[in-house]
TrEMBL record:
Domain ABC transporter span(s) in chain numbering: 2-250
PANTHER family: CONSERVED COMPONENT OF ABC TRANSPORTER FOR NATURAL AMINO ACIDS, CONSERVED COMPONENT OF ABC TRANSPORTER FOR NATURAL AMINO ACIDS-RELATED
Protein origin, superkingdom: Bacteria
Name recorded for this polypeptide: ABC transporter ATP-binding protein
GO cellular component labels: plasma membrane
Alphabetical list of InterPro entries matching this protein: AAA+_ATPase, ABC_AA/LPS_Transport, ABC_transporter-like_ATP-bd, ABC_transporter-like_CS, BCA_ABC_TP_C, P-loop_NTPase
Record keywords, A-Z: ATP-binding, Nucleotide-binding, Transport
PROSITE patterns, A to Z: ABC_TRANSPORTER_1, ABC_TRANSPORTER_2
An example Gene Ontology molecular-function term: ATP binding
Family annotation (Pfam families): ABC_tran (PF00005), BCA_ABC_TP_C (PF12399)
Length: 263
């Protein structure tokens, strides 16, 4: 579904993404791991159109989408969430979801004045869709709370809910576990798995919690210093010498190996 070809993103002399090549298969939940500063979020930002690449290509369903702005990618079904949730804090959770669908009739003054019946019918349908999403995510009980008042984990669920308000094809999730307690993280994991299995969503997930990655992701891709270091099943990647070295450093890796050898 997504193919990244020799992608570079430089900031002056710093190569945040340095020739990354990878593929995200349709219907997969692909995990993207790597130490801090590996270039994972920058890669997401380039794919999702928030940053232009220095060079390289991004291909979606056979179409070159390199450098397209986020709103055009959104219309094609490519969505991205953030490590820090971006909610409208003074609006309710339900209203946050209802804001997502584009080209709503009530957005124009003409329709607001002269097509009130059409606007009302459309708003009722969007509200019903939002309530369905809230029920799917098991957060109906916070529907009428201000989004700025809910917990960090609940905000992550609301961000996931936004992707359900449109016809998402692929969703890039950036550190869904950051600041989230284990119970809510399990709820988020359940929702991702259900969306993948029941609705055919494709996901790419950045996450440092390897238990979470192991539970939901296959395959897993590891980045380091802007490059793709390894890819495969979670066990293959976790046991790859290059991955161990990227996370632990050569000295600590050798120390662990020595301790294991001496029992």
């Amino acid at each position: 579904m997504i193919r990244v070809e020799n992608l570079h993103r430089h900031f002056g002399g710093f190569r945040a993404v340095d020739g990354a090549t990878l593929e995200i298969r349709k219907g997969s939940i692909t995990g993207l791991i790597g130490p801090n500063g590996a270039g994972k979020s920058t890669l997401f930002n380039v794919i999702a159109g928030r940053l232009p690449p220095t060079s390289g290509r991004v291909v979606m369903d056979g179409e070159d989408v390199t450098g397209l702005p986020p709103h055009e990618l959104f219309a094609k079904g490519l969505l991205r969430t953030f490590q820090i949730a971006h909610e409208f804090g003074s609006m309710t959770v339900r209203e946050n979801l209802m804001m997502v669908p584009a080209m709503q009739s009530g957005e124009t003054l003409w329709n607001a004045w002269f097509n009130r019946g059409r606007v009302a019918r459309e708003e009722a349908a969007i509200r019903a869709k939002a309530d369905e999403v809230l029920e799917f995510l098991t957060i109906s009980h916070i529907a009428d709370l201000k989004a700025g008042q809910i917990s960090g984990g609940q905000k992550k669920l609301v961000e996931l809910g936004r992707t359900m308000m449109v016809d998402a094809k692929i969703v890039f999730l950036d550190e869904v576990g950051a600041g989230v307690n284990r119970t809510l993280l399990n709820t988020i994991g359940d929702a991702i798995l259900r969306l993948n299995k029941e609705r055919g969503y494709t996901f790419c997930v950045i996450e440092h919690d390897m238990d979470f990655i192991a539970r939901i992701c296959d395959p897993v891709i590891c980045m380091a210093e802007g490059k793709v270091l390894a890819q495969g099943t979670v066990d293959e990647v976790k046991n790859d010498e290059r991955v161990i070295e990227a996370y632990l450093g050569t000295g600590l890796k050798n120390k662990i190996k020595e301790e294991a050898a001496h029992g």
